[in-house]
C-alpha cells in the first residue's frame, strides 16, 4: 500500500501536462522510469497531446557523406532543435559498441530515425546492425543463410551489388517494422534485379527477382534514397551513360505488377541529352522525393526543383516546384555552386555548396533570401534558418574531395549521389521487436 502511495504522489493528469512540455530527450529517459510512465508516454492520447503542443517545433537532422570514409560520415549536423533538445549533433550517436575491437564502422543507411550499420572487427568478423542510436537500441541482423562471410566479401567487391537498403513500415507516425534490402544485378546492363530482403516481422531472409520494362545500366546501386517503404536509385538506359531514370520499388506494397520495378524518367532529360552539363541530385523534402538541378540557361544559372508525384514512365511524373535564376535574383551568391540537399521538412529551403565562397549556402526559394555558412572551429556554431545550431565536421574537406569527381561527371555525363539525410522522427520510434 505504501509503495502504491509513493507512485501516486503526482496525479496522472498533472504528470501528463509536465511530460508534454519536455523535449523528447528527457521523455525518452522518463519512459524507462517505471511501467506506469512508459504506458502513459506510449499512449496515443499522450502522443497526440505532445504533437498539438509541439507541431511547429524544429527537428534535429544531419547531412551525411555517402562516398568517402576518410572524413566524418556526418558533415553538417543540426542540433539544439526544440523538439529533441539535443546538445550534440547526431553524429555523436551514430555508433554501436560491440564486444570486440572494430576495424571498420560504416553507416549504410538512415530512414525515419532508424540506422543500418556495418561493422568489421579486427578478427575479420562482419556484422550488420539496425538500431535507434538515440535510444541506444540495436539488433544484429544475421547474414543470409545461403551466404558465408566470404561470399559477402566477394559480393561487396561487385560494383553491381549493394547492401545498404533500409526501408520502414509506419503506422500513426511510429515505425512498426523494417526491412534490410540487398540488391544485385547479374549483368552491367540487365532487365532484372535480385533482392535479398530481411524482415523484422519474420526474422527471415527471402530472395526475390524483379524485372524492369527495359534494360538499364546498374552502376549506381551503391546508394538509394528511402522514403515510405520505397527505395529509389539512379540508373541509365542503354543509350546513355548518364543517369536518365529513377528506379523505385515498394517493399511493402510491391508495384503495379508485383514483379516490376517502376522506371521514372528525369524531367527534361531529352532536351539536355546532347549537352548534359548541369549539376543535380535527388533528395527528400516534406514527405516527397525531390529532384534538384543547376543548369546554365541563356547565360545565367537556373535552379530547378521538381517533386515526384507519380511512379509512371512519363515526364509528367515530376511536378516543377521552383525555378529561380540566381544571376538576376541574387547578388553575392557566387557563380560556381552545386545542389547538396533540400531541407527535409521545409520544401522552400535548398542547401548548396559555393566553391567561390567555400561556404554552405542556405537559400529560401520563396523569399530569395540566403545565408552563407563557413566551417568554423569546433567550439563555434552557425545558426540555420529554422533556429537550430549547425556544426560542420569535415564538410569543406569532403566538398573538396568530391568536386573534381563532380566536375568530371558534369563534363563526362556521369552523375551520382554524394549526400544523404539523417532526420530524427517527430516521436520516439523505439526499435520494433523482432518476431519470435
From TrEMBL:
Tree of life domain: Eukaryota
Domain F-box intervals: 4-53
Listed transmembrane segments: none
UniProt xrefs under SUPFAM superfamilies: F-box domain (SSF81383)
InterPro entries: Beta-prop_At3g26010-like, F-box-like_dom_sf, F-box_dom, SCF_F-box_component
Pfam family, one: b-prop_At3g26010-like
Protein name: F-box domain-containing protein
Amino acid at each position: 500500500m505504501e509503495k502504491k502511495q509513493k507512485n501516486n504522489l503526482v496525479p496522472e493528469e498533472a504528470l501528463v501536462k509536465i511530460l508534454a512540455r519536455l523535449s523528447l530527450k528527457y521523455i525518452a529517459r522518463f519512459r524507462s522510469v517505471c511501467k506506469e510512465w512508459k504506458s502513459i508516454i506510449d499512449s496515443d492520447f499522450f502522443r497526440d497531446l505532445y504533437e498539438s503542443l509541439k507541431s511547429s517545433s524544429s527537428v534535429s537532422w544531419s547531412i551525411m557523406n555517402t562516398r568517402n570514409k576518410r572524413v566524418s560520415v556526418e558533415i553538417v549536423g543540426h542540433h539544439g532543435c526544440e523538439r529533441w533538445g539535443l546538445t550534440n549533433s547526431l553524429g555523436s550517436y551514430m555508433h554501436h559498441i560491440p564486444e570486440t575491437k572494430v576495424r571498420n564502422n560504416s553507416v549504410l543507411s538512415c530512414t525515419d530515425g532508424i540506422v543500418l550499420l556495418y561493422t568489421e572487427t579486427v578478427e575479420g568478423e562482419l556484422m550488420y546492425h539496425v538500431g535507434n542510436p538515440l535510444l541506444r537500441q540495436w539488433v544484429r541482423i544475421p547474414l543470409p543463410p545461403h551466404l558465408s562471410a566470404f561470399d559477402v566479401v566477394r559480393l561487396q567487391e561487385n560494383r553491381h551489388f549493394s547492401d545498404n537498403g533500409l526501408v520502414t513500415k509506419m503506422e500513426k507516425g511510429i515505425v512498426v517494422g523494417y526491412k534490410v534490402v540487398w540488391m544485385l544485378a547479374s549483368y552491367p546492363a540487365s532487365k532484372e534485379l535480385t533482392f535479398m530482403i530481411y524482415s523484422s516481422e519474420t526474422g527471415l531472409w527471402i530472395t526475390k527477382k524483379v524485372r524492369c520494362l527495359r534494360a538499364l545500366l546498374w552502376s549506381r546501386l551503391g546508394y538509394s534514397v528511402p522514403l515510405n517503404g520505397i527505395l529509389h536509385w539512379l540508373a541509365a538506359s542503354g543509350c546513355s551513360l548518364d543517369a536518365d531514370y529513377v528506379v523505385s520499388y515498394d517493399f511493402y506494397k510491391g508495384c503495379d505488377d508485383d514483379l516490376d520495378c517502376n522506371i521514372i524518367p528525369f524531367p527534361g532529360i531529352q532536351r539536355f541529352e546532347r549537352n548534359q552539363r548541369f549539376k543535380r541530385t535527388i533528395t527528400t523534402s516534406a514527405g516527397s522525393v525531390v529532384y534538384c538541378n543547376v543548369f546554365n540557361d541563356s547565360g545565367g544559372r537556373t535552379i530547378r526543383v521538381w517533386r515526384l508525384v507519380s511512379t509512371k514512365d512519363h515526364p509528367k511524373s515530376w511536378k516543377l516546384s521552383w525555378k529561380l535564376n540566381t544571376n538576376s535574383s541574387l547578388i553575392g551568391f557566387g557563380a560556381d555552386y552545386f545542389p547538396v540537399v533540400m531541407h527535409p521538412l521545409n520544401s522552400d529551403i535548398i542547401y548548396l555548396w559555393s566553391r567561390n565562397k567555400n561556404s554552405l549556402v542556405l537559400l529560401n526559394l520563396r523569399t530569395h533570401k540566403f545565408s552563407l555558412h563557413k566551417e568554423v572551429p569546433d567550439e563555434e556554431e552557425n545558426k540555420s534558418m529554422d533556429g537550430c545550431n549547425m556544426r560542420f565536421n569535415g564538410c569543406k574537406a569532403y566538398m573538396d574531395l568530391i568536386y573534381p569527381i563532380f566536375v568530371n561527371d558534369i563534363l563526362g555525363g556521369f552523375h551520382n549521389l554524394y549526400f544523404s539525410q539523417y532526420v530524427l522522427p517527430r516521436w520516439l520510434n523505439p526499435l520494433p521487436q523482432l518476431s519470435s
